[in-house]
Amino acid sequence: MAIVKMKRLHLIALAQDRDALLASLQHVGCVELREPGEYLADESYAALLHRETSDLAQARGDLAELQHAIEALRQYAPQKGSLFAPRAQLGEAELLDSRARQAALDKAAAINGHARTVGQLSARETRVRADQLSLTPWAACTVPLEVRGTARTEVLLGSVPSGVDFASMAGAVEEAAGAAALAELSADREQRYLEVIVHKDCRQQALDALRSFGFSFAQLKDLTGTAQENIRALDQELAAIAREREAEIAAIREMGPSLDELKLGLDRVEQVIASESAKERLLAGGSIVYLDGWASEPEVPELEKALAKFDCAYELTEPAEEEYPEVPVQLRNSKLIRPMNMVTEMYALPAYGTIDPNPLMAPFFILFYGMMLADMGYGLIMMILSAVIMKKAKPNGATMRYMIPLMGLCGVSTFAWGAVTGGFFGDFIPQLMKLLNPESTFALPALFSPVDDALMVMMGSLVLGVVHIFTGMAVSMYKQIKRGEVMAALCNEGAWYLVFILAGVAAATGLVMPCVIAILVLLLLTQGYGKKGILGKLMGIFGSLYNNLTGYFSDILSYSRLMALMLAGAVVAQVFNTLGAMTGNVVLFVIVAFIGNGLNFALNILGCYVHDMRLMCLEFFGRFYEDGGKPFRPLNINTQYVDIVKK
Description:
This protein is of the alpha+beta class. The chain contains 22 helices and 14 strands. The strands form four sheets. Strands 1, 2, 3, 9, 10 and 11 form a six-stranded antiparallel β-sheet that branches. A hairpin with a 3-residue loop joins strand 6 and strand 7. Helix 14 packs antiparallel against helix 15 (400-421), helix 16 (428-436) packs antiparallel against helix 22 and helix 17 packs antiparallel against helix 18 (486-509). The chain starts with 5 loop residues before the first strand and ends with a strand. The model has no long low-confidence stretch (mean pLDDT 88).
């Protein structure tokens, strides 16, 4: 099976069975509910039905509460976890246990309470430190801050820019006010901090002189006591804040073992969100509820079995062709083909009613990837990593469940191509043998070398490209013939098949002129198909010749990247192996060679994937692929942290 067939589901049930019905649909996991907008837009429906209410906002709030609590535990009570730790398994009934969900929410509320207090204390500490920092320049002032002077004198605290000459300023103030004394309390790169004692009768004259040097009053709060006393009080407050914060963090750490329970609680709330979201897609009227959706055809028997438990009426119909753009798409293939979903979903899902490209793409993608990387050592690493991760971690994420198996399949191809080219971490083994014995001539057996036989490899790459393009053309012809467009298929892809065949015959037999004449006649007879009038046919012929000749040439030439990446990877590996061998020391050789090969592997494992995707998405998909499919998102049980064992 490739693209799963869908059925349109219309269902009317009793309102009292709503929650049980949704729970049953969630268990089956094969129905995607449609938005009821089109019905509400119809006045005849809107007069009878209304959108069902839900507690979705509350469920999302619970989810946020659990997420914040998990983040708090990860921050303040981190736990060591194994990279390949398998996910726990849980029964469906246990997952949907409301009491366990509420217990997790209660613990999350407690953790978040402590975390909020920590945040408040941190904010308070910031304010206290800012106050302390503002007092530090005045620490040398022995006059209490609440004292503004005596009966005849006034104390002024302020600052001037650091570039001001203190002696000149003091002289100017003394000349203007007479009875005034200046003292510099402290200075930094921006300001000089001053204490000015002046007779009240001369206050204004002193201020005028000071302001000419950029004097500004200190912005101090209404504090009592000296600056030093206030700084010590703030130190004590900071120490109290630190103790209180440490107590709150300790309380969070004590709840560290609850992390798994909170993760499970998050999965439980996710199911509530799915159910509440589904409720908002229901229409209600009086004592009934109505739903409209899509059901995957293979699960229809199980769906019908589940619906038989309720007093409901439903209808399952085939979607009409005009509905195809709205029909969701689900891809279903064998274990060997399924990893290709990673490539297809990154590009775009195929439109419903068209062809699933994965079975056609898989052999070429895996073959091309292995050809570009082509090293037994790299392939072995990929296979081992894939096997270990699949066995230990059992990845089930949206990407990992495809990426890890795909890495293993590409690793097999990489190992096979490495055996063909004689590459094991480049020429690591021959270099090592030569280092151990300078007379050694050992070399791994190989059918060809990407370094010595680059031209042959390039020709092979182009031949594989032609096969790949021919496959895409064949699929395109099949689609056209299936739609009844037989002549269009024969005059387009069919004609160009013959052009390539005749060109191959000319190259193989030397009968160039007869083949050229046959090609020209063929193109003249076919490339004007579908065009009206003589001028239209002539324009169609010349346009088709230009577009197809340049298009096929550039597309086939794109496959030279298979040779380029194979050659580049082999050369880089050999360069690092040679650098290691130049040390003359076996240990240093192994270190340098494996560091270099590690970098080469890390670069090419991604680079080969990108170039492979380009060949698939542009050269291959462009011939037949119809994208635009919407992913099938049924109401089902999805979890992040546990695997559900359905009974």
